[in-house]
């Protein structure tokens, strides 16, 4: 999902643009600019063919349970935090009335697998709804057999059609009961419930699922919490205790992640032969000017984005700059936790959409809506010379910057020891398009980002797969269906009919033609 849209509605309009791009992406100058031009895209003739990728490279497409399944109150499912949120703030969600049914993937999964097959993908990135398999989040609350069966059927249907499931264990949504009972991820006692949930999944599906990710974009939830989505009141980092809570939420995510990986490795990996990682929101922060303070600000944002999650996993603790700037509001790991965290991933998932400039800002009350926490940096759409990162695409109003993806892959590769990487999300909206089926903007976007991925591979980055986001028009939080994000259009005026867009046929062609 494009988390950028979530925050959009919660910001006031004058900030909206910065908010959107604020979730863009990031790269400190690394001395290796690459001429990967979105403007330069004419047609696919200059884009690398499938055969030029390593033979085991995976091409796929993604989704998440809470954005497509529907059947919120059916099949024994419990409520998730987003059911509650949308219900209580329905007027602020475009298409809020569709949230409990969505595109009815729960009922139409067999048909949907046929559409995926038509695309020619190797793999389908899906997520499991915790509330569907454990309705109140705990083992004591019971396991929902119907929910368990649904994912068994979906996974079997995928495999039968030659498509590998690539499963996210938690993609934003989790059982409301856990939040109401003890504050959800604010409370460390969530760890053992999360671990129970993971064990159930490994035990039930691990014979067939060979790619697991513990969390999608762990940094997004703390941000949402601060801005009143996981929570009623929106407040700014520097004004409140919410910011400290945000650090606590991420801290508990990390401990959950490490506990799940430990469990998988001890009890399942050897026999099941799969791999487990986590998915980052990849933002490329480019210095606003060549002044040292802006270069430093961009690096701080990198540390507050990638380092926040990856340093504990690589080195057992948060980046030093975070310890220095956040002080005692940043929780400590115990010795045991540090040990458990170190090395706790087999691969990194990268969700990339766009890029943003970073400028030094010492006045905390001037930092933008998303605040960038305590990084003493502000993000801006224009740099000191008045340029943007990439041209603005007319429908999405995104600044499209495939170089940002290239740069971020190089950055992660150099900083985090040449890890195995999958591009787990990459895509673009096309709101206000007269004919959403003719999504040439999406073709150009995906093509140039696949091109950037190839350039990174050619320069030694260990990228193993690329997943376009998303397969079907999905409910993108406050923007509902207005962004028409899918490779497949879903027609709400015609019984939710799925219709391949131009991009779907283009992608299929890339994946299935031999020359
Ligand atoms: C594709 O990437 C190459 C670098 O590998 C770059 O020179 C070229 O301009 C890119 N083409 C497009 C259309 O993005
Ligand atoms: C595709 O674009 C190239 C320039 O990149 C151009 O030479 C070629 O004629 C184009 N092909 C088609 C079919 O439009
Ligand atoms: C879930 O249900 C069980 C059994 O009814 C109960 O003991 C437990 O407190 C519930 N948990 C939550 C988080 O509501
Ligand atoms: C955390 O959850 C436990 C129950 O598991 C509860 O006793 C405790 O009060 C909760 N702590 C907070 C800060 O809510
Ligand atoms: C910081 O910014 C706020 C809001 O613009 C302003 O009121 C305040 O005076 C600034 N503080 C300093 C020290 O510049
Ligand atoms: C789409 O159209 C609506 C209504 O005209 C407008 O408010 C919105 O800004 C447009 N969105 C984009 C991304 O152009």
Radius of gyration: 21 Å
Bound molecules: 2-acetamido-2-deoxy-beta-D-glucopyranose
Mass-distribution shape: globular
Q: How many structural domains can be distinguished in the coordinates?
A: 1
Major pleated sheet = 8 strands, parallel, barrel
**CATH class value:** Alpha Beta
Keywords: Glycosidase, Hydrolase
GO molecular function: beta-glucosidase activity
Active site: 425
Family: Belongs to the glycosyl hydrolase 1 family.
How would you explain this protein's 3D organization?
The active site is at residue 425. Keywords: Glycosidase, Hydrolase. Pfam families: Glyco_hydro_1 (PF00232). Belongs to the glycosyl hydrolase 1 family. This is Glycoside hydrolase family 1 protein. This protein has 515 residues and is of the alpha/beta class. The chain has one domain (3-512): Alpha-Beta Barrel (TIM Barrel). Helix content is 40%, strand content 14%. The chain contains 17 helices and 11 strands. The strands form 2 sheets. Strands 1-2-3-4-5-6-8-9 form an 8-stranded parallel β-barrel, surrounded by 5 helices. A two-stranded antiparallel ribbon has the order 10-11. A hairpin with a 5-residue loop joins β10 and β11. It is globular. The two termini are 32 Å apart. The relative contact order is 0.17. Residues 1-35 have low confidence and may be disordered. The structure holds 2-acetamido-2-deoxy-beta-D-glucopyranose (NAG) (6 copies).
């Amino acid at each position: 999902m494009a988390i950028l849209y979530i925050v959009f509605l919660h910001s006031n309009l004058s900030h909206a643009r910065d908010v959107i791009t604020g979730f863009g992406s990031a790269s400190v100058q690394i001395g290796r600019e690459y001429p990967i031009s979105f403007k330069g895209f004419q047609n696919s003739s200059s884009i690398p063919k499938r055969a030029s990728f390593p033979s085991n490279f995976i091409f796929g497409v993604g989704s998440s349970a809470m954005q497509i399944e529907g059947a919120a109150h059916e099949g024994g499912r419990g409520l998730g935090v987003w059911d509650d949120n949308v219900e209580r703030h329905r007027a602020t969600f475009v298409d809020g009335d569709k949230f409990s049914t969505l595109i009815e993937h729960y009922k139409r999964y067999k048909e949907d697998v046929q559409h995926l097959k038509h695309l020619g993908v190797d793999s389908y990135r899906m997520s499991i709804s915790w509330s569907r398999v454990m309705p109140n989040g705990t083992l004591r609350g019971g396991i929902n057999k119907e929910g368990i069966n649904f994912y068994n059927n979906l996974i079997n249907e995928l495999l039968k059609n030659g498509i590998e499931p690539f499963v996210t264990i938690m993609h934003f949504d989790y059982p409301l009961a856990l939040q109401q009972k003890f504050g959800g991820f604010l409370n460390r006692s969530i760890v053992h419930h999360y671990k129970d949930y993971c064990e159930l999944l490994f035990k039930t599906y691990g014979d067939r699922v060979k790619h697991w990710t513990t969390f999608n974009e762990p940094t997004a939830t703390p941000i949402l919490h601060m801005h009143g989505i996981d929570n009623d009141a929106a407040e700014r980092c520097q004004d409140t205790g919410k910011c400290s809570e945000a650090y606590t939420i991420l801290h508990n995510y990390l401990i959950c992640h490490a506990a799940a990986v430990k469990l998988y490795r001890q009890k399942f990996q050897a026999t099941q032969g799969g791999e487990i990682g986590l998915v980052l929101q990849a933002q490329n922060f480019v210095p606003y000017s060549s002044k040292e303070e802006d270069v430093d600000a961009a690096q701080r944002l990198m540390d507050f984005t990638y380092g926040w999650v990856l340093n504990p996993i690589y080195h057992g603790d948060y980046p030093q700059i975070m310890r220095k700037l956040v002080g005692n509001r940043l929780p400590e790991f115990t010795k045991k936790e540090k040990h458990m965290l170190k090395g706790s991933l087999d691969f990194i998932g990268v969700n990339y959409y766009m890029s943003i400039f970073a400028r030094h800002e010492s006045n905390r009350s001037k930092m933008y809506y998303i605040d960038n926490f305590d990084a003493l940096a502000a993000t801006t759409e224009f740099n000191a010379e008045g340029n943007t990162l990439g041209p603005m695409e007319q429908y999405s109003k995104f600044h499209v910057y495939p170089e940002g993806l290239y740069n971020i892959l190089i950055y992660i590769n150099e900083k985090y020891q040449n890890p195995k990487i999958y591009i787990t999300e990459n895509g673009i909206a096309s709101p206000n398009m007269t004919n959403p089926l003719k999504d040439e903007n999406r073709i150009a976007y995906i093509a140039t980002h696949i091109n950037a991925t190839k350039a990174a591979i050619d320069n030694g980055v260990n990228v193993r797969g690329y997943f376009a986001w998303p397969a079907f028009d999905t409910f993108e939080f406050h923007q509902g269906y207005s962004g028409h994000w899918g490779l497949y259009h879903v027609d709400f005026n015609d019984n939710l009919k799925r219709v391949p867009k131009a991009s779907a046929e283009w992608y299929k062609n890339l994946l299935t033609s031999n020359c």
